[in-house]
Design brief:
mainly alpha, elongated
Length: 216
């Protein structure tokens, strides 16, 4: 049985986990939620939090296990209650992303008839139509990698769009325009600005070296 101080301690651990989750530190957040679950084993909230982390990481099987634990601890709450609906919605999304269409169909039956429930039902209907009209699975190549990859930020090499040769063909007062579409974390933008700044600095140094010294 949990001690009297377990509930406030669990709430503090969850709050710490929530802060880490918002910062994208999922591994540390999960540890905090597990601590909260150990301090308040009858509270479904930490299990719900862990399922949210697993969902974000693409580990839908683990997310479902934690959702089932949270739902088993929420048996006293009505099915249309907001907390249970949140769990059921995430469960339906896990089944959809896993292409477990039969399980997804069962899950969406428990969802409320609101915008979120309607959206998931439409998504399931579209997947079912695509699934039944597509060629057999054997026509596709086998998946080489079965582990989902998660990147909180871009991982390709930052590249510059600045071309010093093109700059040399322009006049000193010419303007250069760049269009960055969907720049994401803007690494390519920063690489371009850094390269232009460095080129300008080197040009100034070169100009200074080429200037003849004046007699005193």
């Amino acid at each position: 049985m949990a001690s009297t101080g377990a509930v406030p301690e669990s709430a503090a651990a969850r709050e710490r986990g929530n802060d880490l989750y918002r910062k994208g530190k999922f591994a540390e957040a999960e540890k905090a939620y597990q601590e909260a679950a150990a301090l308040a084993p009858e509270d479904p909230a930490p299990w719900s939090n862990i399922s949210a982390i697993k969902f974000e990481q693409g580990d839908y099987a683990s997310a479902l296990k934690n959702l089932e634990k949270a739902l088993s601890l929420s048996s006293s709450e009505p099915d249309d209650g907001p907390k249970k609906q949140k769990l059921l919605t995430r469960m339906a999304k896990c089944h959809l992303h896993s292409l477990s269409l039969e399980d997804a169909e069962q899950a969406v039956k428990s969802l409320a008839d609101d915008a979120s429930g309607k959206e998931l039902r439409e998504a399931l209907d579209g997947l079912q139509k695509t699934w039944f009209t597509s060629p057999d699975e054997g026509a596709f190549r086998k998946q080489v990698q079965d582990k989902p990859e998660y990147y909180p930020m871009g991982h390709d090499q930052a590249d510059t769009l600045y071309d010093p040769k093109a700059q040399g063909n322009l006049g000193s007062n010419s303007a250069i325009s760049f269009l960055f579409c969907g720049s994401g974390d803007a690494r390519h933008l920063f690489a371009t600005l850094s390269t232009m700044g460095f080129a300008e600095l080197m040009a100034r140094r070169q100009k200074k070296q080429n200037c003849p010294s004046r007699p005193a």
